Description:
Blueprint: E1 2-7, H1 14-27, E2 32-36, H2 44-47, E3 57-58, E4 62-63, E5 66-67, E6 73-75, H3 92-104, E7 113-117, H4 124-132, E8 137-142, H5 144-148, H6 151-161, E9 166-171, E10 176-177, E11 184-185, H7 193-199, E12 204-207, H8 212-220, H9 229-240
Parallel strand pairs: 1-7, 1-8, 2-6, 2-7, 8-9, 9-12
Antiparallel strand pairs: 3-4, 5-6, 10-11
Helix pairs in contact: 3-4
The chain binds adenosine-5'-diphosphate.
Residues 7, 10-16, 43, 172-173, 208, 210-211, 214-215, 218-219 line the site of adenosine-5'-diphosphate.
Amino acid sequence: KIIGIMSGKGGVGKSTVSALIARNLAKQGYKVGVLDADITGPSIPRLLGVKDAKAMGAPNNCIYPVQSSDGIKVMSLNLLLEDENQPVIWRGAMISNTVKQFYTDVIWGELDYLLIDMPPGTGDVPLTVFQSLPLDGIIIVTSPQELVGMIVSKAVNMAKKMDVDIIGIVENMSYVKCPDCDKKIYMFGKSHSQEVADRYQLPLLGQLPIDSELTQLSDQGYVENYHSDWFDEFSQKVKDI
Length: 241
Ligand code: ADP
């Protein structure tokens, strides 16, 4: 199954959610690959703890993905750069071709799931992913503020126009839990995710809190060490779909 992880805009936690889902599927024994199609903002290698690895060339101008400690196969432009701080200053056509090659020229081997961390928005590269890769479905990641606007609707409508199934919506950064009394604090106001999910008749897969432990672990590449009640609940939903 090829699943795209999409968001209306950057910084809502799309890559973090992609990494959490990948780790979760790998833990369940599935063979998982992650194609980092966020060419200009690639954060998957860091999140999956392979930021210092380099992808190796394979016969016939192909390339092998890098494997994480738990066997997730990863391809990202950062795995081809000498220094992860080097910017990629490319025109859209070149970025789109790279995404296509990450699908066609990478020796992925046998996989149960290929997750595609898509670039944010509904522009050139997401369009390439929709048109060139045989997606089975997409998951839309959003944040509460974004939900009140039209941005999620744009992502939903793009998927519909491209005739790709939407598996569901994940609302990230929904709330913060008070460390003293466990009360949920909705920093961005009342959540509208259920309303949006209902409007489009989509399942709401999870409402994930802001958790500084998750920020630290994911930035260090140890997402697999993250445990919490909400994560167990979210994992169960991922397992169900
Ligand atoms: P995107 O892929 O949408 O641009 P990222 O997944 O790279 O966003 O997340 C942006 C930053 O926010 C990262 O530093 C990440 O660790 C942090 N982050 C994402 N989700 C959460 C969360 N639920 N709690 C705390 N930090 C988060």
